[in-house]
Amino acid sequence: KNEVEQSPQNLTAQEGEFITINCSYSVGISALHWLQQHPGGGIVSLFMLSSGKKKHGRLIATINIQEKHSSLHITASHPRDSAVYICAVTSGTASKLTFGTGTRLQVTL
Amino acid sequence: DVKVTQSSRYLVKRTGEKVFLECVQDMDHENMFWYRQDPGLGLRLIYFSYDVKMKEKGDIPEGYSVSREKKERFSLILESASTNQTSMYLCASSLFWGRENGYTFGSGTRLTVV
To answer: I want to staple B22 with a disulfide (CB 3.0 to 4.6 A). Which of A54, B7, B29, B90 is the partner?
Structure first.
């Protein structure tokens, strides 16, 4: 079993839909990261959080430390949101990231 | 904005060649990382470094070595490239643990070994 599990693996949505991507982890963490990877490979860090909720534009990330679970929400989705979204955690005093396998999101018109 | 620059976007090398992948960051980050990304396996850590001349093995170090002679530069070396090292390679950097620990990634190098 992977230390970081994401669901769903693939997601197709119509423009305007509200999207939720889930991440569960099995280890104690110091922080959880949500990353976005567009075709072509470059990865952008969206959020780093260790408690509560963060919001940036149409993106919202929440984390429940007791349940070891995080969600990434996209409101009013748009085709330009199409990408792979990756959940990753850091734990202990190490700075290493442990990654989920990603959620491929396709938003259609 | 912190920038992490990888020297090549695409690289084609022959089996047995020595390959250097270069990564440079411009924000004085202590930590630097090399990952490879393969379909179905996600991102896996090859090596990381938390200071000049310091390095630690990640999850899949076999067949690779690294060099960090200056704080801003972290090189990944494939001593004798093999076809199973065909992959997307991503470099990242971050501040030392305990401080704001966001990560910045490079654009990736897609390496093909033929």
So the answer is: B7
